[in-house]
C-alpha cells in the first residue's frame, strides 16, 4: 500500500501543558478519548495515513511535552517539520497568552522557513470558556496561521484540523518532496508551480 | 521565429514539362503563398534598425527541386521595430512604382551594420544579421539554397536558375529580391534578382581570396563600378561610404591580469595574513582579447578623396566617426572560480588520508591516538602545533618531513587559524559574530555555513589556498591532519578553540562548526568540573575536619517523613545562603560548593539540603512548611544535528504502539529523574506534589481552604494520580542527589572523543564536503566585494546563487548535491568573468582610478554588452585619445620587434606614412552608390550600388545593378 502514499509529512503538536495535545493526537490517530491521558514526557510519536483531495499522505506526528523544563529537550525534534499545530485550552486564557512564546519557539527551531502553522483552540466542550472564538481567530489572522476550534473529547474539529493542515502543506511548493523523488521540488519562488512534480498546485 | 508552412495538398500539373518550368511553377506557388507581391512599402530605415530589430525567418523545405537538387527557400524579413510587424507606409502618393529593395540599398542609414560575429558556440552559422542585409542594406529578401551538401557551382546551372528566378518574379510581380546560394554555404556567395516594376535588378557578387592588383585601392574599385554600370552617358556623382576596421590585440601597458597569491614571495615580508584570509579574484589572462576600431567616413564624393599606395585620405585619426567593439576572451582562467573548481574536485577525491599522508601519520602514531586521550599526558613525539607555537621560535624537534607544505607555511596558516597561540601581531577573531550588512541584504545569513571570519570560515579559505597553490591534495590532507591534531591538543590541555561562536551547537551553521562548538562545550564543562572538583575537595577537607567527631550513619535516605530540625520562618542567613548559591551557580555552572556546610546546624548531616538555586516564589513544602527551592539541575545536553537525527531515528524505530510510547517515555525520563533527584536534594522532605507545583504547575489543582502554612490547599490533577504513571514511578525511584553528584547526562569526555574521532576519520573528500558550503559562502562574499553597479546582471545572478546555496544547505547532503554545486560554480565563473571583463575595460579606458564621467560610464557599459559602441567625439574625444594611445603603443612595440620585417607589407601594401600609429586595417569596406541611365541614353536613371570588402585573405564585391526594361 505504501506505493500509494504521496509523501510523508512531519507534523508537530506544541503548546502549554494540559491543553490536550496528546488527547488531540489520540483522537485523531485512534479515534479514542482517554480522560486519564498520561502526561507526555519529552516527546512522543505517532503515525497515520490520511487522504486529502485524493492524495494519500503519511503523517508522522510528534507530540511534545508542554512543561517549561522540557523545552531544552523537545526543540531538537522540530527539525524538518512541515506543519505545526499550536494548541491552547479555550477554558484557560493563560494557555492562550503563551501562544506567542510557542510561535517564537517554533520560528527559532524550525528549519523550514515556510512551515505551515495552525492554531487550535481545544476543549470547546467545556462550559466555562475564557477565550472566545473571535479572539482565537484574531490571533491566527495576525500571525497568518490556520485556525480551528476543537474538542478531543467530542471529536469536534479534530479530523478537520489535520485535513486542513495537510491540504495547505501539499499546496505549498517546495515544502515537501514526493516519495522516491531524487530531486527536490524547486523551492525557488514561492509563486512557482513545481512543474517537475506533475501535481496540481495552487498558490496561497 | 521560424515557421514551417506546410501545404496539405500537392497538386501535380501535367501541362508543364521541363524541369525548369516545374521549378518556376513551384517557386511561384511559394511566392503566392507567402504573398510576396502584395508586400507593402514601409517607412524608411533609421540607423540601427536592421541591427537591433527582430528578424523574422520563414522556411520551406523540400518543395522546390531542380535537376534532382532539392532546395530550401527561406525568407528573411525585418520586423518593424516600432510596431512589431511591418506597417505599411501611410502616404503612398505617387510613389507606387518605387521598390522597397531599391530604396533600401540606397539608404545610408544602415551602412556598415555591425555583425554579431562571436556566437562562438554556434559556429559561423549564427551570424546576425544575415550578411546579405549587411552588404546590401536589405530588410526583406528570400534565399533559395540547395539542401544538405548539394552545391551549385557550374555557370550554366547558375544562369539557368537565375533565369528561372527572373521569370518567376516577373510572372508574379514579386518585388522582394530573391537570391540563390552558390558554392558552399560557408562561402556566403549569393546571386539574385529582383523585379523592380520598370527596372530589373541584378545582384551580383565577386569573391576572391586575394584582391586583384588593380582593385586594391579606391580608384580601382571605382573603375570596376563604372565599367560594370557601363552607362552610355557620363555618370552622376558617385557617393561613397567608407569604413576601415583596425584590431588591437596587444594591450601593452593596458593589460589587466591577476596573479594567484604567491606565498613564497610574501612570507619573507610579513605573515601573509591578509592573503591567507582572502580569496583571489580575477582573470589570469586579459579577459578582453581584442578591440575593434571602426573608422567611418560617411557620404563622401568620389572626386574629393585620394586613396592609393603612397597616400590616402583615409587616415583613421581623421575619420569623422569612430566606433569600437571589444571581443572577450573565451573562458579566461579566473582565480576565484578555479579555486572553487579545485575544491569541488577534492570533494570527488577517492583517496584516503593514509594514502596521502600515511608517512606523516606513522611518525606521529605513538603520540596521536585520539581514542585514548590519556596519552595526552605524555608528550607526543611530534609536537602539536600549539606546543610548537608556544615554544616560540625554538626549532621544532621534528620538522614535517615529507609534507607538501613547508614548515614555515604551515606555521603561518596555523597562526592565522589559531591566533590565540601567538603573542600578538596576527589577526584575532572578531569579538562578536554578526552578519555583515551585505550578507544580510542578500539573505546570505540563511546559508547553512558559519559566521564570516570564524574558524571554519578561515579554514575553508586556507584549505582552498593550500589546495590550489601550495601543494594540492596531499597538502590539503596535511593541513586537515594538523587541524585535527590541534583540536586534540586543545581538548587535552583544556584550551578553548578560538573563532567558534559560543554556546551550544547552532544547527543553523554547518556540521563542522557544530562539531567544534560541541568540542568547546565539552572543554568548557570539563574545565568547570575540574575547578569545581578542586574547590570541593578543599571544602570537604574543611567540612570533614569540623564534623569528624560525629559518627555519621551512612544513610542515603529518600524517606519523606524524616524529621528535620528546622524553623518555620525563613532566617536571613538561609535566604542569603540561597542567594549566594544562586550567584555561585551563575558563575560556576552545574553545581556549587559548600552549600551543605553552612547549613549544617539546621539539618541532620545525612539530609542536608544541597544544590539550591533560588526560592520558588512563596511556595512552601506541603509537609514541612520549608521554603520550596528550585534546585540546581544538570545543564541540558548540547547536540549536533547528526546526533539529533540519530535520536529521532531511534524514536521512530520504536514504533507507534502503547508499548513504544512507554519506552520513549522511559528514555525521555532520564532528565526528569535527574531533575527530581536534584529537587529532592534541595528540598528535603518534599513530596511529588511539591515537585509538580514547580515542574508542571497546571497539574496542581488548587482548592478551597488554606493549609497550615498559609497556602491554598490543592491536589494533583487526575492524570497525575493515575496509578503507575511514569511520574510517580520516577519520583519513587529518585534519590536526593544534587546535580553535581549525579551521573552526568552529558558525558563531556565521551562526547569530545566522539567529535575528535569524527574529525580524524574524515576522508579528504568528506573533509572537503564539510568545508564546501562555507567556501561557497566565502566566494559569494568575495564576488559581492567586486560587484559593480555598472553591471546590472551581476547582482541578480549572485542573488540566484545565494538562493540555491541556501536551499542546498537546508538539504544538507553535500555529497549528493555535488552536481548542483558544480552548476553554481559555473554561474559564479560567469559572474567573475563579467566583472573581470569590466575591470579590464575600466583599466584600459579610465584615467587611473579617477572619477569617471557619465559619458565614459555609459561607454563602458555598452561595450560590456558586446555591441558596437560609438566613440563620443570620435578620435578627438578623451576616449578616442586613449584608444589612439593604445594603438600607438602597440605599434611601437610591434615595430621594435620587427623593425625591418616587411613580409606583411608585401602582401597588403596599403601603407601610409601618416598612419604609423595604426596597424594595417583589418578590413576596408567601401560602399559606392550612384544613379545611372541603363542600358540606353533614354532609360530612366536607376540606382546602382557596389560594396567592396577588402581583407587580408578575402576580397568581396557585392554589386547591385539596375537597368530599365521598358526603355531599352
UniProtKB/TrEMBL annotation, chain A:
Keywords associated with the record: GTP-binding, Hydrolase, Lipoprotein, Nucleotide-binding, Prenylation, Protein transport, Transport
InterPro entries: P-loop_NTPase (IPR027417), Rab (IPR050227), Small_GTP-bd (IPR005225), Small_GTPase (IPR001806)
EC number(s) given by UniProt: 3.6.5.2
GTP-binding in keyword set: yes
Gene Ontology terms: biological process: protein transport
Source organism, top-level taxon: Eukaryota
Keyword Lipoprotein in annotation: yes
Molecular function as annotated in GO: G protein activity; GTP binding
SMART domains tied to this protein: RAB, RAN, RAS, RHO
Family: Belongs to the small GTPase superfamily. Rab family.
Protein name: small monomeric GTPase
Taxonomic lineage of the native organism: Eukaryota, Metazoa, Ecdysozoa, Arthropoda, Hexapoda
Automatic annotation (TrEMBL), chain B:
Gene Ontology cellular component terms for the protein in this record: endoplasmic reticulum; Golgi apparatus
Keyword set, alphabetical order: Cytoplasm, Endoplasmic reticulum, Golgi apparatus, GTPase activation
Compartments, as annotated in UniProt: Cytoplasm; Endoplasmic reticulum; Golgi apparatus, cis-Golgi network
Domain Rab3GAP catalytic subunit conserved: 607-759
An annotated Gene Ontology molecular function: GTPase activator activity
Region (Disordered): 554-603
Major subcellular site: cytoplasm
Domain Rab3GAP catalytic subunit C-terminal per the UniProt entry, residue ranges: 771-967
Compositionally biased residues, Low complexity: 581-591
Keyword RNA-binding set for record: no
InterPro entries linked: Rab3GAP1, Rab3GAP1_C, Rab3GAP1_conserved
Family the entry assigns: Belongs to the Rab3-GAP catalytic subunit family.
Protein name, UniProt field: Rab3 GTPase-activating protein catalytic subunit
Lineage: Eukaryota, Metazoa, Ecdysozoa, Arthropoda, Hexapoda
Amino acid at each position: 500500500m505504501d506505493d500509494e502514499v504521496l509523501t510523508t509529512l512531519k507534523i508537530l503538536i506544541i503548546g502549554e501543558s494540559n491543553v490536550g495535545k496528546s488527547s488531540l493526537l489520540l483522537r485523531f490517530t485512534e479515534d479514542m478519548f482517554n480522560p486519564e491521558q498520561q502526561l507526555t514526557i519529552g516527546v512522543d510519536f505517532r503515525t497515520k495515513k490520511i487522504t486529502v483531495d485524493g492524495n494519500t499522505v503519511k503523517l508522522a506526528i510528534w507530540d511534545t511535552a508542554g512543561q517549561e523544563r522540557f523545552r531544552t529537550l523537545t526543540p531538537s525534534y522540530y527539525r524538518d517539520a512541515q506543519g505545526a499545530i499550536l494548541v491552547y485550552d479555550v477554558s484557560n486564557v493563560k494557555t492562550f497568552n503563551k501562544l506567542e512564546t510557542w510561535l517564537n519557539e517554533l520560528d527559532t527551531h524550525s528549519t523550514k522557513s515556510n512551515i505551515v502553522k495552525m492554531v487550535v483552540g481545544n476543549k470547546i466542550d467545556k462550559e466555562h470558556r475564557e477565550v472566545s472564538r473571535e479572539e482565537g481567530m484574531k490571533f491566527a489572522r495576525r500571525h497568518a496561521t490556520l485556525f480551528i476550534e476543537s474538542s478531543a473529547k467530542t471529536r469536534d474539529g479534530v479530523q478537520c484540523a489535520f485535513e486542513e493542515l495537510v491540504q495547505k502543506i501539499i499546496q505549498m511548493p517546495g515544502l515537501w518532496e514526493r516519495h522516491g523523488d531524487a530531486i527536490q521540488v524547486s523551492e525557488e519562488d514561492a509563486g512557482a508551480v513545481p512543474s517537475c512534480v506533475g501535481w496540481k498546485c495552487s498558490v496561497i | 521565429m521560424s515557421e514551417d508552412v506546410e501545404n496539405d495538398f500537392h497538386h501535380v500539373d501535367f501541362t508543364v514539362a521541363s524541369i525548369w518550368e516545374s521549378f518556376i511553377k513551384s517557386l511561384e506557388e511559394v511566392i503566392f503563398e507567402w504573398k510576396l507581391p502584395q508586400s507593402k512599402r514601409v517607412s524608411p530605415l533609421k540607423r540601427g534598425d536592421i541591427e537591433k530589430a527582430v528578424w523574422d525567418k520563414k522556411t520551406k523545405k523540400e518543395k522546390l527541386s531542380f535537376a534532382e537538387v532539392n532546395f530550401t527557400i527561406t525568407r528573411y524579413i525585418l520586423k518593424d521595430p516600432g510596431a512589431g510587424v511591418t506597417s505599411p507606409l501611410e502616404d503612398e502618393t505617387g510613389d507606387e512604382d518605387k521598390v522597397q529593395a531599391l530604396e533600401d540599398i540606397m539608404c545610408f542609414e544602415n551602412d556598415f551594420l555591425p555583425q554579431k560575429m562571436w556566437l562562438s558556440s554556434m559556429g559561423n552559422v549564427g551570424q546576425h544579421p544575415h550578411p546579405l542585409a549587411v552588404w546590401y542594406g536589405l530588410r526583406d529578401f528570400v534565399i533559395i539554397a540547395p539542401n544538405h551538401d548539394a552545391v551549385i557551382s557550374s555557370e550554366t546551372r547558375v544562369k539557368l536558375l537565375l533565369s528561372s528566378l527572373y521569370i518567376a518574379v516577373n510572372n508574379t510581380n514579386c518585388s522582394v529580391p530573391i537570391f540563390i546560394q552558390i558554392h558552399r554555404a560557408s562561402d556566403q556567395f549569393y546571386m539574385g534578382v529582383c523585379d523592380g516594376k520598370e527596372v530589373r535588378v541584378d545582384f551580383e557578387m565577386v569573391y576572391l581570396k586575394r584582391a586583384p592588383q588593380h582593385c586594391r585601392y579606391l580608384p580601382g574599385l571605382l573603375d570596376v563600378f563604372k565599367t560594370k554600370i557601363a552607362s552610355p552617358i557620363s555618370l552622376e556623382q558617385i557617393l561613397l561610404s567608407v569604413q576601415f576596421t583596425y584590431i588591437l590585440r596587444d594591450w601593452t601597458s593596458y593589460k589587466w591580469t591577476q596573479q594567484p597569491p604567491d606565498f613564497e614571495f610574501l612570507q619573507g615580508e610579513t605573515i601573509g595574513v591578509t592573503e591567507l584570509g582572502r580569496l583571489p579574484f580575477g582573470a589570469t589572462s586579459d579577459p578582453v582579447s581584442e578591440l575593434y576600431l571602426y573608422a567611418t567616413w560617411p557620404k563622401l564624393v568620389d572626386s574629393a578623396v585620394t586613396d592609393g599606395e603612397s597616400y590616402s585620405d583615409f587616415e583613421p585619426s581623421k575619420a569623422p566617426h569612430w566606433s569600437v567593439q571589444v571581443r572577450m576572451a573565451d573562458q579566461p582562467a579566473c582565480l576565484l572560480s578555479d579555486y572553487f573548481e579545485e575544491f569541488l574536485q577534492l570533494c570527488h577525491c577517492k583517496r584516503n588520508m593514509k594514502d596521502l599522508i600515511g608517512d606523516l601519520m606513522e611518525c606521529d602514531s605513538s603520540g596521536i591516538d585520539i581514542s585514548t586521550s590519556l596519552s595526552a599526558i605524555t608528550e607526543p613525539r611530534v609536537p602539536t602545533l600549539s606546543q610548537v607555537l608556544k615554544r616560540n621560535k625554538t626549532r621544532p624537534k621534528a620538522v614535517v618531513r615529507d609534507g607538501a607544505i613547508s614548515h614555515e607555511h604551515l606555521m603561518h596558516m596555523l597562526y592565522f587559524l589559531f591566533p590565540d597561540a601567538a603573542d600578538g601581531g596576527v589577526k584575532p577573531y572578531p569579538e562578536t559574530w554578526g552578519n555583515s550588512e551585505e550578507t544580510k541584504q542578500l539573505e546570505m545569513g540563511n546559508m547553512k555555513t558559519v559566521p564570516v571570519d570564524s574558524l571554519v570560515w578561515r579554514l575553508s579559505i586556507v584549505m582552498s589556498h593550500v589546495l590550489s597553490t601550495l601543494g594540492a591534495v596531499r597538502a590539503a590532507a596535511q593541513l586537515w591532519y594538523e587541524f585535527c591534531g590541534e583540536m586534540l591538543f586543545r581538548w587535552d590541555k583544556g584550551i578553548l578553540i578560538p573563532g567558534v561562536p559560543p554556546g551550544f551547537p547552532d544547527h543553523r551553521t554547518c556540521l563542522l562548526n557544530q562539531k567544534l562548538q560541541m568540542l568547546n562545550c565539552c572543554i568548557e564543562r570539563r574545565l568547570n568540573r575540574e575547578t569545581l572538583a578542586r574547590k570541593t575537595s578543599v571544602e570537604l577537607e574543611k567540612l570533614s575536619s569540623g564534623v569528624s567527631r560525629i559518627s555519621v550513619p551512612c544513610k542515603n535516605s529518600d524517606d519523606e517523613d524524616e524529621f528535620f530540625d528546622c524553623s518555620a520562618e525563613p532566617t536571613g542567613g538561609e535566604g542569603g545562603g540561597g542567594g549566594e548559591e544562586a550567584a555561585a551557580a551563575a558563575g560556576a555552572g552545574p553545581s556549587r560548593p559548600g552549600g551543605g556546610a553552612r547549613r549544617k546546624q539546621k539539618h541532620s548531616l545525612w539530609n542536608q539540603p544541597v544544590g539550591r538555586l533560588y526560592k520558588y516564589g512563596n511556595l512552601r513544602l506541603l509537609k514541612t512548611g520549608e521554603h520550596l527551592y528550585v534546585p540546581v539541575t544538570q545543564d541540558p545536553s548540547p547536540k549536533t544535528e547528526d546526533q539529533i537525527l540519530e535520536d529521532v531515528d531511534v524514536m521512530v524505530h520504536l514504533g507507534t504502539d502503547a508499548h513504544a510510547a512507554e519506552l520513549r517515555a522511559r528514555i525521555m525520563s532520564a532528565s526528569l529523574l535527574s531533575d527530581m533527584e536534584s529537587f529532592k536534594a534541595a528540598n528535603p522532605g518534599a513530596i511529588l506534589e511539591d515537585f509538580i507545583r514547580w515542574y508542571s504547575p497546571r497539574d496542581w489543582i488548587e482548592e478551597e481552604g488554606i493549609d497550615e502554612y498559609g497556602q491554598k490547599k490543592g491536589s494533583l490533577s487526575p492524570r497525575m494520580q493515575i496509578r503507575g504513571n511514569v511520574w510517580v514511578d520516577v519520583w519513587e525511584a529518585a534519590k536526593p542527589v544534587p546535580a553535581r553528584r549525579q551521573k552526568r547526562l552529558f558525558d563531556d569526555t565521551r562526547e569530545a572523543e566522539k567529535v575528535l574521532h569524527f574529525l580524524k576519520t574524515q576522508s579528504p573528500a568528506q573533509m572537503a564536503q564539510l568545508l564546501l558550503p562555507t567556501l561557497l559562502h566565502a566566494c559569494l562574499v568575495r564576488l559581492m566585494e567586486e560587484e559593480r553597479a555598472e553591471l546590472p546582471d551581476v547582482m541578480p545572478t549572485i542573488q540566484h546563487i545565494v538562493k540555491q546555496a541556501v536551499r542546498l544547505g537546508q538539504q544538507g547532503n553535500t555529497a549528493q548535491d555535488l552536481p548542483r554545486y558544480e552548476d553554481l560554480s559555473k554561474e559564479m565563473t560567469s559572474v567573475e568573468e563579467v566583472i573581470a571583463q569590466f575591470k579590464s575595460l575600466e583599466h584600459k579606458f579610465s584615467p587611473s582610478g579617477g572619477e569617471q564621467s557619465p559619458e565614459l560610464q555609459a561607454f563602458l557599459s555598452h561595450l560590456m554588452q558586446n555591441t558596437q559602441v560609438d566613440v563620443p567625439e570620435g578620435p578627438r574625444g578623451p576616449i578616442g585619445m586613449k584608444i589612439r594611445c593604445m594603438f600607438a603603443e602597440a605599434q611601437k612595440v610591434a615595430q621594435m620587434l620587427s623593425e625591418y620585417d616587411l613580409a606583411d607589407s608585401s602582401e597588403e601594401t596599403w601603407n601610409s606614412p601618416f598612419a604609423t600609429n595604426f596597424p594595417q586595417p583589418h578590413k576596408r569596406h567601401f560602399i559606392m552608390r550612384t544613379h545611372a541611365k541603363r542600358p540606353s541614353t533614354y532609360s530612366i536613371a536607376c540606382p546602382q550600388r557596389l560594396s567592396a570588402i577588402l581583407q587580408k585573405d578575402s576580397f568581396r564585391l557585392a554589386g547591385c545593378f539596375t537597368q530599365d526594361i521598358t526603355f531599352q
